[in-house]
Amino acid sequence: MSLSWLPRESGIKDHDLWGDELFGTEAPCTMYELKPITDPKGGTADGLYSAWIILNNPKQFNSYTTDMVKGVIAGFHKASMDRRVVAVVFTAVGDRAFCTGGNTKEYAEYYSGRNQEYGFYMDLFNGMVDAILNCKKPTICRVNGMRVAGGQEIGMACDLAVVADTAIFGQAGPRHGSAPDGGSTDFLPWYLTIEDAMWNCISCELWSAYKMKRLGLISKVARVIKDGDPTVGGFIPNPGVIIDKYVEDGEIVYGDFKTGEEGKKAREFMKTAVIDFELLDKEVNKIVWTFTNLFPGCLIKSIDGVRQKKKFFWDQTKLANRHWLAANMQGEAYLGFHAFNTRKITGVDTIDFIKYRQLLAEGHPMDEELFEAVLGKPQG
Question: Do residues 167 and 249 share a domain?
């Protein structure tokens, strides 16, 4: 029986909340780009795209400013509401960093000491994580370099991670005046053992892509260093990471960074190494092509079913964390962000922790005298 006689409104509605006013091309900004879906033979699926949300602040390791956070929120919503988009790829400009978290210059020079203002900022940050977790398209974090601090947190909000083997991972909060409460304390225990999650959150150690693959944090690792012999044209693994041996006592060290002379040589090599993301992008395209050949409704229901477990703890804690992080801008965050922001003047990027603890042990108030005592002094 034909139902053509039923009244139906013509045209397609626009469900996007924003236009393109929150995107840009000149750093610092968030960029939004549609890329055609490609099949394994290089052909394109007409009218279908992946949406690339790109952090563009390479001079500051793609740390996100307030305006960039707004752009990320707008980008994930725009992709979610675009019928042509199959999947979202979240990445950044350059080959050094995906993201190192919030912009410490902005934190130190504007938000520190302004608790209410930072509370407003955290409402935006929480909205950014929510935008990723609620996106009605699969999300892939294409990690092109450092994924540290808040960068690790927004990356973990994505469904999958495809990672350059030069990438490094970790947190910075307890060393620089904050806590990894933008997602790491919620997400890491789902990915890692509880003790690995604990140590990664609090130690501020940096871990390699190979180590994170071994521990289960990421989906795929791709080689990105071009072989120095132009006649070969292949790719070599990151020379700074152990990927082929064990230490003498039997403890697995696969994925640990090389130390000593080996580590020094690797760091020198990396200063002139040629980085090429061909294999990384092939892995991204494979995943997007897989998504393209699945029922979209069944796909996103399956994804949301898994995301729900991540969202459970995120939703339980994000509001309380918002208030604590705002209040902390009057104390330890004030110290930590100013120490980091003035490192070129003082020669150190942290406070004097011993002096700080000694003053606290004496019951010293958090006042200007304490701040003066523990912050670095201008050199010369």
Answer: no
DSSP 284-298: HHHHHHHHHTS-HHH
Tell me whether residue 245 is exposed, middle or buried, using C-beta atoms within 10 angstroms of its C-beta: 0 to 12, 13 to 18, 19 or more: exposed
Q: Within this chain, do residues 267 and 168 fall inside the same structural domain, yes or no?
A: no
Number of domains in the chain: 3
Residues 262 and 362 in one domain: no
Residue partners of 297: CB distance under 8 A and separation at least 6: none
The first and second tokens of residue 335, run together, are 């110290």
Can you tell me the distance from the alpha carbon of 24 to that of 32, in angstroms, rounded to the nearest whole number? Answer: 8
Contacts of 217 (CB under 8 A, 6+ apart): 156, 161, 169, 188, 191, 192
Instruction: Mark whether 172 and 321 lie in a shared domain.
Output: yes
Q: How far apart are the first and last CA of the chain?
A: 88
Q: Which domain holds residue 236?
A: 228-274
For 321, residues 6+ apart whose C-beta sits below 8 A from its C-beta are 122, 179, 181, 182
Please check whether residue 8 lies inside any domain of the structure: no
CA triple 119-124-128, angle to 5 deg = 140
In a domain, 9, yes or no: no
- The verdict on residue 68 lying in a domain is yes
Question: Considering the domain boundaries, does residue 243 fall inside one?
Answer: yes
Same domain, 293 and 322: yes
The crossing angle, in degrees rounded to 10, of helices 115-134 and 66-81 is 20
pLDDT tens series, the chain, 380 aa: 678 778 888 788 999 998 899 999 999 999 999 999 999 999 999 999 999 999 999 999 999 999 999 999 999 999 999 999 999 999 999 999 999 999 999 999 999 999 999 999 999 999 999 999 999 999 999 999 999 999 999 999 999 999 999 999 999 999 999 999 999 999 999 999 999 999 999 999 999 999 999 999 999 999 999 986 655 568 999 999 998 765 555 666 789 999 999 999 999 999 999 999 999 999 999 999 999 999 999 999 999 999 999 999 999 999 999 999 999 999 999 999 999 999 999 999 999 999 999 999 999 999 999 999 999 999 87
